[in-house]
Amino acid sequence: MKKSVVSFLILGVVIAVVATFSWQWWQQQQSILAKDFVSGNGRIEADQVDITTKYSGRVKRILVQEGDLIKPGQLLAIMDTTELDAQLAQTKAQVAQAQAAVAEGDALIAQRQSELTLAELELKRVAPLVKTGAMSQSIADKTKTIRDTAFAAYSAAKAHVHTLEQSVLVAKTAVARVQTQIDEATLTSPVMGRVLYRLAQPNEVLGGGGKVLTVINLGEIYMEIFLPSAQAYLTPIGAQARVKLDIIDIAIPAQVSFVSPESQFTPKQVETQSERDKLMFRVKVRIPQALVLKHIEQVKTGARGVAYIRLLANKGEDPSPWPDFLQKLPDDVLSSESSPAEKSNQ
Fold first, then answer.
1. Is 310 in a helix, a strand, or coil?
2. pLDDT tens by residue, 109-118
3. Residue 243 φ/ψ region, left for φ over 0, alpha for ψ in the -120 to 50 degree band, beta for the rest
4. What is the DSSP letter of 318?
5. pLDDT tens digits for range 290-307
6. Are strands 57-62 and 75-79 parallel, antiparallel or unpaired?
7. Which residue ranges have biased composition labelled Polar residues (predicted)?
8. Could you tell me the CA-to-CA distances from 189 to 44, 196, 217, 268 in Å, in that order?
9. What secondary structure does DSSP assign to 246-264, as a single string?
């Protein structure tokens, strides 16, 4: 019992010491920042993308493992298409059958057209003979009836072929639909990222929209911080920023990509009591994609740190230089990330 009390007291002392040093460090950081800088703590984040099936089916193969780095367009998984392949063969056979029927219909049209042409010629020969009395009217009527019958048969043959041509279009549409389902059975990556979870296994049957993988989109790396209204108001979209992570000794160039138009109460990242009583605005600081891609193997989401943002300077005032502890940048940082004056300080 006594040991438990002692352990509890030691733990409380340790927590108090850590909290005290953390508070002193935060105060020190705020004191060394010029008035046109603000900061907020957060963590490196990236959006998650679910790789899902469009149609129900059985998982045939999954070609990646958790933690694998993937590229846009890379093949990730394949769904079984045995039944779809059979349907495709069947629909293609239906197209061939419908096309053959159209060919037969075209031949019938040619035959009916010949019969119509012959009947019209016969009617033209009979008509003058009837007028001169060399042939009876009844024979002329029969000839005209034969011509009308031939014309009706010709028209029916053309209508029948038109129906058959529509059947060909329907069959081709069925082929395209099945082919689309087969194409959708091949799951590829839409982003540059890393596999976070494998949510399915080979031979597992999934419904439409079933999740196979969850991927972290490493093409969009950012940190979210929260600022009080007075500071958020002076934070423009595109403002220069630098991210200082706890795990590395360099500052990462970034820029403000989003400032929330709506305020909210205290988020989890805010740790001081004075700030907890204020409405805060969410600000997103984005790391340039070119820099992320150069260090793609080292990018780890969840790393905690602090984002520092340069606010709008007052008219007639030059922007303050970055503090010394934010001067150390990656060796391959783009020259456009800093001004000539800043380069001389780096």
1. strand
2. 888 888 888 8
3. beta
4. P
5. 888 888 888 888 889 999
6. antiparallel
7. 335-346
8. 22, 13, 10, 32
9. TT-SSEEEEEEEEEEEEEE
DSSP state of 313: P
> Which 8-state DSSP code applies to residue 55?
S
Say if CB 298 and CB 313 are below 8 A apart: no
CB-based contacts of 4: which residues, under 8 Å, 6+ apart? none
- Rounded to whole angstroms, the Cα distance separating 327 from 41 reads 19
3-state secondary structure of 328: coil
Other CB atoms within 10 Å distance of the CB of residue 54 = 15
Residue 79, SS3 per DSSP: strand
- The alpha carbon torsion through 140, 141, 143, 147 (nearest 10 deg) reads 130
Euclidean distance between CA atoms 29 and 277, whole angstroms: 21
Q: What is the mean pLDDT of residues 268-285?
A: 67
Q: What average pLDDT does this structure show over 14-26?
A: 51
Indicate the burial class of 326 (C-beta count within 10 angstroms; 0-12, 13-18, 19 or more): buried
Which pLDDT does position 1 carry in this prediction? 47
* pLDDT higher than threshold 60 for residue 287: yes
Q: Give the type of residue at 313.
A: A
Cα 10 to Cα 6: distance, rounded to the nearest angstrom: 6
pTM (2 decimals)? 0.66
